[in-house]
Specification:
By secondary structure, the chain is an alpha+beta fold. Helices cover 29% and strands 37% of the residues. The protein has three helices and seven strands. The chain has a seven-stranded antiparallel sheet with strand order 2-1-5-6-7-4-3, sandwiched between helices. A hairpin with a 2-residue loop joins strand 3 and strand 4. The longest helix has 15 residues. The relative contact order is 0.25.
Length: 122
């Protein structure tokens, strides 16, 4: 599978006009889904609220695709138990980097501005 060893995926979400907007993000795999963390005011979150349609591709940290784009579907996670599952998957994959991100969010008062996204694996 092309996502197996990737550290980042390029998440392409769609504006109402149909134009795709690509964003490189951390992701963690858990069963049939990929989990992503974002600020709840980010453009990708607003676009997913409007339409769950998305495309994903493994990529570099700068967003350069390293594999083929694939159609998928994304949704925002509302349930706290699933948010914990997503957070734990990200902590397992990114370790100390995720702990640093969490610490910065606590210190900066942004911990409650986070949204988890669930993406169906292609």
């Amino acid at each position: 599978m092309q996502f197996e060893h990737a550290q980042y995926i390029n998440l392409g979400t769609f504006r109402k006009t149909g134009v795709r907007v690509d964003t490189p993000v951390w992701f963690a795999e858990c069963h049939e889904f990929f989990y992503v963390l974002s600020n709840n005011q980010a453009g990708k979150v607003k676009r997913i609220r409007n339409s769950g349609r998305c495309q994903i591709a493994p990529c570099t940290m700068f967003g350069k695709p390293t594999g083929e784009w694939q159609d998928s579907n994304a949704e925002l996670i509302d349930r706290s138990d699933e948010q914990r599952k997503a957070h734990n998957a990200l902590k397992k994959k990114y370790g100390w980097q995720m702990l640093m991100l969490d610490g910065g969010a606590w210190i900066g008062g942004r911990i409650n501005q986070r949204t988890f996204i669930k993406i169906k694996k292609p």
